[in-house]
Specification:
about 210 residues, 5 strands, five-stranded parallel beta sheet, alpha/beta
């Protein structure tokens, strides 16, 4: 079974995906980390974030273990990721990475869960379950602000809010695979829900769907 979870930044889709994977013994891929890893490597090597050839080379050299880097959570890396994510050749290289992962889960796993911006629309349009996780942008900014403070990183709420609004605008209006819900996705607004409530809802949706 393939489960596709899409949504904007700080909507809770990553937390939900990890909990579903743990609950059902599925393999999990945070696809946003692929772009973050490319963005991180561009920053680390002092590459111009508009250099599409350099970004493509980074994408082609990407290894799954690169996704374990804790620095991928940094906000400057997130901004870099959003910029390289609009590049068609980078998207194509990482699309192949993601589709190969979805088709070949590790031995012993019951399926895969992928979360990102375009899983249900582009990466896995035939996924058995498609969820689009959303929330009010102010709520998402508060969540991200708290997450940064909990990691003892400096954070100003208004700046976090502005960054999320900018990323939403860029992700929703890019020409290649814009952020949007698939026509057959179940849309879940998590603004007033706890993660346990969202998980319970998602597990009931999955249980009601035959694996055909």
């Amino acid at each position: 079974m393939i489960i596709a979870i899409d949504g904007p930044s700080a909507s809770g889709k990553g937390t939900l995906a990890k909990k579903i994977a743990a609950e059902l013994n599925f393999s999990y891929l945070d696809t946003g980390k692929l772009y973050r890893a490319v963005g991180f490597n561009m920053l680390r090597q002092n590459k111009d974030l508009g250099d599409e050839i350099a970004a493509l080379n980074m994408a082609k050299m990407l290894d799954y273990n690169d996704l374990d880097n804790p620095q991928l959570k940094n906000d400057d890396v997130a901004q870099a990721a959003s910029k390289v994510a609009v590049m068609p050749d980078v998207r194509q290289a990482l699309l192949e990475f993601q589709q190969n992962f979805a088709k070949t889960p590790p031995v012993g796993k019951n399926g895969v869960v992928l979360d990102g911006r375009d899983i249900g629309t582009v990466i896995c349009p035939d996924a058995h379950i498609k969820l689009f996780i959303s929330a009010n942008v102010e709520i998402r900014a508060k969540r991200r602000h708290k997450e940064l403070l909990d990691r003892e990183e400096p954070s100003i709420y208004q700046q976090v809010l502005a960054d999320l609004q900018e990323r939403d605008e860029r992700d929703s209006n890019r020409k290649q695979a814009p952020l949007k819900a698939a026509d057959d996705a179940i849309i879940v607004d998590t603004s007033d829900m706890t993660i346990l409530e969202v998980l319970d809802f998602a597990l009931r949706v999955i249980a009601d769907k035959p694996n055909d």
